[in-house]
From TrEMBL:
Domain Antirepressor protein C-terminal: 129-236
Domain of life: Bacteria
Classification via Pfam families: ANT (PF03374), AntA (PF08346)
Native organism: Faecalibacillus intestinalis
Annotated signal peptide: none
Domain named AntA/AntB antirepressor: residues: 17-81
Protein name, as recorded: Oxidoreductase
A GO molecular-function descriptor: DNA binding
């Protein structure tokens, strides 16, 4: 299968660049106008897309959006053009391969390997200490022992599992209102200086090469192990 557009396989879902899709479809209107019009079809930030800041070949900052495969399929169908039909068929094939029994099994095995590794690396002293703590402290120490950062949406699931009902969108909103994430501007939804000083987040930077040879930088905000403990205890208290 020829690669029509570059896609990212991360956090159990497929995403891609809205700007690259806009370019492939040959849309004549400017990107920002087009994307805002597409959002009128009911797509929601955090669920269907995330804003990312990238740098153009000329060094100018540009806002792109990392969109889900489902959103990309709907956009392609809306265009009603040969390009739209072609790329939608490409997305359907990607989805078919992603959901094949072999791919699902491989992801499950990889997840299991990570879980086993994390358990084996726990220190005996931490286990003994955890036995004396309350359930919420047990969970908090287990998280702090992990070196892996997680997305804010995954943090919302962890908080729900510990008895506080909150979804991804509400958690984003709460973090912005409480000055853990930036409310507006080019750094929208990125950590505030206060959050970074506390060690609650880290920003993962990824450099991608565009079809024209230019590069773009993708910034993804993730919650550190310390941040997971901090926010879970804050909601539980």
């Amino acid at each position: 299968m020829n690669e029509l557009l570059k896609v990212n396989y991360d956090n159990d879902r497929i995403t891609l660049s809205a700007r690259e899709l806009h370019e492939f479809l040959g849309i004549k209107s400017v990107f920002t106008t087009w994307f805002n019009r597409m959002c009128e079809y009911g797509f929601q930030e955090s669920n269907d897309f995330l804003p990312i800041l990238e740098e153009s070949s000329g060094g100018r900052p540009l806002t792109d959006y990392e969109i889900t495969l489902d959103m990309a399929k709907e956009i392609a169908m809306i265009q009603r053009s040969d390009k739209g039909k072609e790329v939608r068929q490409y997305f359907l094939e990607l989805e078919r391969r992603w959901n094949s029994p072999e791919a699902v099994m491989n992801r499950a095995l990889e997840y299991s390997r990570k879980q086993v590794k994390a358990l084996m690396e726990e220190k005996q002293g931490l286990i003994e200490e955890n036995n004396q703590l309350k359930p919420k402290a047990l969970f908090a120490d287990a998280v702090s022992a992990s070196n892996e950062s997680i997305l804010i949406g995954q943090l919302a699931k962890l908080i729900r599992q510990n008895g506080y009902e909150i979804g991804q969108n509400r958690l984003f909103e709460w973090m912005r209102e409480n000055e853990y994430l930036i409310k507006k501007g080019e750094r929208y939804n990125q950590p505030t200086q206060k959050s970074m000083d506390l060690g609650l987040f880290e920003v993962k930077e990824r450099t991608n090469t565009n079809p024209d040879g230019s590069t773009r930088i993708t910034l993804t905000t993730k919650v550190t192990g310390k941040g997971q403990v901090y926010f879970i205890n804050k909601f539980l208290s």
